[in-house]
Amino acid sequence: MLVPTVGGYFDEVIAGARAAAATAGARLVLGIAAYEARDDRAQVDRLLESGVDGLLLTPNWQPGDPPHHPGDHHWLAELPVPAVLVERKADPGSRAAELDAVGSDHRHGVLLALRHLAELGHRSVLLAARADTWTAHQVRTGYAEAAPLLGLDARPAIDMHRPGAPLTGSDPDWVAQQIAEATAQGVRAVLVHNDQDAIQLPPLLRTRGLRVPEDVALISYDDVFAALAAPPLTAVAPPKKAVGATALEILLRRLDGGSALPAHHVELLPTLKVRTSCGGDGTA
């Protein structure tokens, strides 16, 4: 199994795959191709050298990257063992689209968050999101689609920095200031991708005279640490463990003689975990 990071979102994906493997009497081998390194192919080669029978892959695809150029990831379609894409979906023009794929429907997750805020009376919701991962791109696309569908005023997204990257003006304090300025224009609700960034915002907003949820309704995306915030954050919860388990089960089916089956492209729907960070009345 190749993932871009551990210590957060993918821990639960790994846990789901590991549990499914244990149930089936299989062994899971983990590899990490860090976001910054962009060395998917080298890490896959190392896993293959270790003698694995199949691969669960989360390539480091960025917005605007391949597989939008069909030849750039041809090696994914030429692997010597079965492979399943995890939390990634290849462009239809790529040969990687012929692989099995299991992931969360992040656009639906954004729709759930915005619908909840709309039902609380909000007419404008601000998005604060990263821009450096495939998932972040899906969240941004989901916002652009869902806001007009729900009759909400769409606003330009606030760009969150990548955790651990050098700060270039997009640090949490700067983001809190952008939110404060938006509240002066009547915005009282924010969707933040992801938990690590969202959890830092309530105290920073408080220093600007804004309380969560009394003055600003806040929803986090990922639901890894959201319940530990003060106040606990309402959060979109992708089905991370189910994604890992389903991907492993499909891979085992392939290994068990299922090569003649058509490719599976499975999208699992996130849920919304309602806590206290949105309050009960978005018009207050």
UniProtKB/TrEMBL annotation:
Residues 115-278 form the Transcriptional regulator LacI/GalR-like sensor domain. Keywords: DNA-binding, Transcription, Transcription regulation. SUPFAM superfamilies: Periplasmic binding protein-like I (SSF53822). Gene3D superfamilies: 3.40.50.2300. It comes from the Bacteria. InterPro entries: LacI/GalR-like_sensor (IPR046335), Peripla_BP_I (IPR028082). GO terms for molecular function: DNA-binding transcription factor activity; transcription cis-regulatory region binding. This is Transcriptional regulator LacI/GalR-like sensor domain-containing protein.
